[in-house]
Amino acid sequence: MGIISYICTFQISLAVAMTGKLAVYTGAWPMPHSRLMGPAPTAPVPPPGAIHYPNEEDAPAPAAREGNA
Question: Torsion-angle region of residue 28: left (phi > 0), alpha (psi -120 to 50) or beta?
Answer without folding.
Answer: alpha
